[in-house]
């Protein structure tokens, strides 16, 4: 018998859902995640690794299903901030094995405008990328650019301030461009100085117009040097914003019926504090998010521990995305502690300075020793750059300041990271993850 309330047909029952927070839209069935192989059951870690770990290994393989294709996890999500991976065609990203791309809501909101992407048919169609897409909420850029720290909010950046550790500190010589209140953030565009307002509702509206398969709730990003009291206040603000994001996401999903479903991930903050990370994971884990992002500034030495804290508390049947890592040691640490996907701009950023990844470490092809080196960047690498060009030629391109230099090294670096993560996934399934990790890191970091 039909429901007396048509709106009720859009929801499935979720008794644990907090009062006032909507349940599952019917179209949410277009998104899913299935765990395949658990690291702890398939692989035997070395005794020393068990002793260091401090808890169970939370890693696993799985499959994320989206309206534009599947993502086999663990997976590296390449970053195309402004609807492009810098200097690399989307077709090239597909050829090198990238499963999905991540763009930035803040940058696309400012230029060319989310309404334009909506009119174009969404992010994927706009940039001619046929696979799954992600957008982050814009919160990182609003906070980091707003405080003058640009790309990184960490202890080094905060220490550069004459008021290091202050909750309103900014980078030396910079003006604060973002001002946070409980309703949202006022920020000044880094492009032209115009003032803009981001709230959880605005972030959802912008991301729905951009049209990515997976988007993130609007959150407040803190630094490692914010006071404990501010971290607690910020965590509560992010929790309330998460509820508002869910409500607006549900409204927009209904309003834009007929468009592919866009999954919404909550973002776990809490800085370096175990109790705050676990509280955030429990709070947001009890809401009807499709998955979760682990965000915030992280000390490298605590990365794995913090990911594990979150993974232990979050629902096991939801994917977990770690925001902003790509170094080999960090990738293995993230995988074994439960991160399913992660992203970083590093492969293309370092490529523009001539740095290329090899199994034996990172080197700069602009160095003099490569001038007459007629071998590929990496012998045996199956990427387009290594199959067709030599170190000598790419060295020449950098010296001549030719733009294609960055393109070729970016293709190679993206392929290197994508393949390393793919191989890690295969190693979990084969029961050889810890052996693969040990050999990979032994070669990449010989000085260790």
Notable traits:
448 residues, alpha/beta, eight-stranded parallel β-barrel, three-stranded antiparallel β-sheet, 18 helices, 16 strands, 16% strand, disordered N terminus
Task: Write up this protein.
- This protein is of the alpha/beta class.
- Helices cover 40% and strands 16% of the residues.
- It is built from 18 helices and 16 strands.
- The protein has helices spanning 39-42, 47-53, 90-95, 105-110, 114-120, 123-127, 139-146, 155-159, 200-210, 228-255, 274-285, 303-313, 328-336, 346-351, 384-388, 391-399, 404-430, 433-444, and strands at residues 32-38, 60-66, 69-73, 75-79, 101-104, 133-136, 178-180, 185-188, 195-198, 214-216, 263-268, 291-294, 320-323, 341-344, 355-358, 361-364.
- Strands 4-5-6-10-11-12-13-14 form an eight-stranded parallel barrel, surrounded by six helices. A three-stranded antiparallel beta sheet has the order 1-2-3.
- The longest helix has 28 residues, at 228-255.
- Mean pLDDT is 88; it is low at 1-19, 146-165 and 170-176.
Number of strands: 16
State the distance separating the first and last CA atoms: 68 Å
Approximately how much helix is present in the residues?
Answer: 25-40%
Using the CA coordinates, give the radius of gyration: 22 Å
Which residues form runs of ≥5 with pLDDT under 50? Answer: 1-19, 146-165, 170-176
The number of distinct helices, counting runs of at least 4 residues, comes to: 18
């Amino acid at each position: 018998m039909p429901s007396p309330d048509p709106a009720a047909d859009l929801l499935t029952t979720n008794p644990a859902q907090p009062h006032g927070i909507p349940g599952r839209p019917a179209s949410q069935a277009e998104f899913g995640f299935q765990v395949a192989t658990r690291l702890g059951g398939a692989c035997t870690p070395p005794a020393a690794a068990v002793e260091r770990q401090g808890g169970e290994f939370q890693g696993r393989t799985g499959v994320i299903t989206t309206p534009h294709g599947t993502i086999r996890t663990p997976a590296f999500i390449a970053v195309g901030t402004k609807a492009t991976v810098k200097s690399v065609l989307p077709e090239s990203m597909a050829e090198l094995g990238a499963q999905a791309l991540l763009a930035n809501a803040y940058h696309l909101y400012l230029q060319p405008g989310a309404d334009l992407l909506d009119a174009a048919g969404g992010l994927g169609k706009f940039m001619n990328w046929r696979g799954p897409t992600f957008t982050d909420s814009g919160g990182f850029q609003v906070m980091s650019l707003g405080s003058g720290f640009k790309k990184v909010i960490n202890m080094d950046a905060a220490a550069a301030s004459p008021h290091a550790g202050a909750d309103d500190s900014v980078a030396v010589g910079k003006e604060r461009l973002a001002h946070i209140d409980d309703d949202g953030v006022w920020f000044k565009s880094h492009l032209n100085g115009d003032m803009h307002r981001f709230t959880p509702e605005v972030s959802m509206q912008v991301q729905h117009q951009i049209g990515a398969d997976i988007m993130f709730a609007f959150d407040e990003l803190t630094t490692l040097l914010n006071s404990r009291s501010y971290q607690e206040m910020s965590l509560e603000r992010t929790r309330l914003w998460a509820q508002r994001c869910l409500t607006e996401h549900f409204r927009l999903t209904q309003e834009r019926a007929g468009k592919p479903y866009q999954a919404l991930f909550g973002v776990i903050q809490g800085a370096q504090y175990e109790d705050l990370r676990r509280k955030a994971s429990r709070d947001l884990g009890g809401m009807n998010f499709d998955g979760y992002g682990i965000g915030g500034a992280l000390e490298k030495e605590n990365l794995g521990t913090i990911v594990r804290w979150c993974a232990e508390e979050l629902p096991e049947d939801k994917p977990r995305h770690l925001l902003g890592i790509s170094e080999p040691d960090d990738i293995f640490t993230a995988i074994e502690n439960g991160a399913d996907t992660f992203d970083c701009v590093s492969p293309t950023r370092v490529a523009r300075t001539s740095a290329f990844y090899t199994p034996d470490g990172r080197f700069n092809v602009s160095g003099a020793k490569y001038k007459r080196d007629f071998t590929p960047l990496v012998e045996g690498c199956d990427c387009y750059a290594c199959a067709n060009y030599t170190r000598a030629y790419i060295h020449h391109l950098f010296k001549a300041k030719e733009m294609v230099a960055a393109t070729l090294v970016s293709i190679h670096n993206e392929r290197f990271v994508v393949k390393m993560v793919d191989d890690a996934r295969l190693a979990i399934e084969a029961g050889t993850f810890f052996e693969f990790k040990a050999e990979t890191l032994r070669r990449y970091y010989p000085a260790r």
